[in-house]
Structure formats: C-alpha cells, structure tokens
Amino acid sequence: MKLMIILQNAYMDREGSVLSGEPLFIMSAYSWKYTSFDNVTERRLKKIVPNACDIIFGNASPKIGNNPNSFFSYDENHVGRMILKYKPDLVLLCGKEAGKAENLIRKIGLPYVLSLHPAARILSNEYCKSKRKEIIREIIRIML
Description:
Elements: E1 2-7, E2 10-11, E3 17-18, E4 25-27, H1 29-34, H2 40-48, E5 54-59, E6 63-65, H3 76-86, E7 90-94, H4 96-99, H5 102-108, E8 112-115, H6 125-143
Parallel strand pairs: 1-5, 1-7, 2-6, 7-8
Antiparallel strand pairs: 3-6, 4-5
C-alpha cells in the first residue's frame, strides 16, 4: 500500500529552490516502522500513519523555504505531477495548503484523508488516533 503524505511546504537552507515534482523522500513500510524521528511533524505522523504503508512524502508547493514559517501557496501542477509519477493508493492531505488539493485528488479518483498539519498546536493524541483509524478504514476499503 503506497500512501502519499502531502504537507504544506518544505524548508531548508536555500529559499525558493524548486523540487521539480520530486518528493522529499520515500520510505518503505519497514523503514517507517523502525525509524525514530526528531521533529514534531514526523513524531505525530508516526501516531497517525500505520506501519503497513510505504510512504511518499511530498509538499503542496515545489518551493522550499528557509525556515519553518516559510509559506508558499498550493501548486496544482506540482501535486498532479507527483501523483501521476508515484501513483499512490491513498493520499493524506496535511494542513490548509495541502487540503486545497482535495478537488484535484477527487477528480483523479484517489481515496484521501484530510488532516490538520501534524505540527499544529491543537493536534491531540485523540485526534491522531481518529485519523489513524480513518486511514486504516480507507486501506481496508481499497483492499476489498
């Protein structure tokens, strides 16, 4: 099962660089299960995403900011290219900008789950559990 997680946007040392349709990284289900993470986003995603998925991390924009507060608007062409290239079975849209891809995902006909951004301050353990259950329900629905 390939799950594409679309976050708002990436940040690194050089603002404005373009990812050219490539995801930030891809992890096998095995790696996802046994990898420890350093930041809040990744730790919370571990609570939300089941271990049985191969993960494709992408962003709503191909641009890269220079700090966590960097903001770039949703880019439909960028998201569309990632989906066509990596052909996920399910998409997790995290945050407001990523959530703007909902219409595109629906047009393509992919199942998806909307979520708050994992780094959102209001995100609770209960919310993480509910999103995990929603993803598992979608995976079961896809497999039947």
